[in-house]
Amino acid sequence: MSADPQRASVSDAVRVVSASMRSRQILDAAARLMERTGSEAVSMQALATEAGVSVGLIYRYFGGKDDVLLAVIVEVLDAFRTSVPQAVDAAGDDPVRRLAAAFTAYCHVIARYRHAAVLTYRESNTLSAEGRETIKTLEVETSQPLRTAVRDGVDAGVLSTPNADLVAYDLLLLAHAWALKHWYFEQTMTLDEYVDAQLALMLQALIRPDLRAEYSDLLDR
């Protein structure tokens, strides 16, 4: 009797979802553990204990600890690559609102992967030269929506700045600051309040004074 192709397809889908969940479980555990102790102090056994899985299962997905660390960092950058363009496209054609949407999306990704974002700063220097180049390349690619939005705003005569790249990276660093200084900011504000406050400060400096009234919803927060 021939196998049921529909049942096989469902089984394959279940295996893919299961593998994704296991990988996600391992990466989350790795981010938490490495943030607490540093990557050099982490053993595969310690990671297995943190994740609640066997060492053998980790090796099914990753070649070793360095592969795990690289995967943790790349996952954040991949989330940027997916979430930020979607948010920008949904914001419409106005460059200021596209910039606001991009920054907001960056902050929400950072909040979702807070432990992994901290690792990007603390542990990326322990990666191989190839791994570091991968991270640098992805960072430039995933910051492009911010740079594009700032340049579009300048070209449209709405934003005023002599250096669009510098503004874009300032915004990127402000997004990362939620992870790096979360222990402090969480005492007085929520993520959304943080995003609103940082946006208002940056846009107040960037939007031409005669056009600020058009963006009062972004500036008066």
Automatic annotation (TrEMBL):
The entry's DNA-binding region: 43-62
Keywords attached to this entry: DNA-binding, Transcription, Transcription regulation
Residue ranges of domain HTH tetR-type in the record: 20-80
InterPro entries: Cro/C1-type_HTH (IPR001387), DNA-bd_HTH_TetR-type_CS (IPR023772), Homeodomain-like_sf (IPR009057), HTH-type_TetR-like_transc_reg (IPR050109), HTH_TetR (IPR001647), KstR2_TetR_C (IPR041490), Tet_transcr_reg_TetR-rel_C_sf (IPR036271)
Coiled-coil spans in chain: none
CDD domains listed in its UniProt record: HTH_XRE
Pfam families found in the cross-reference section: TetR_C_24 (PF17932), TetR_N (PF00440)
Superkingdom per UniProt: Bacteria
Gene3D superfamilies (UniProt xref): Homeodomain-like (1.10.10.60), Tetracycline Repressor, domain 2 (1.10.357.10)
PANTHER family named among the record's database cross-references: HTH-TYPE TRANSCRIPTIONAL REGULATOR ACRR, HTH-TYPE TRANSCRIPTIONAL REGULATOR RUTR
Protein name: TetR/AcrR family transcriptional regulator
UniProt source species: Gordonia liuliyuniae
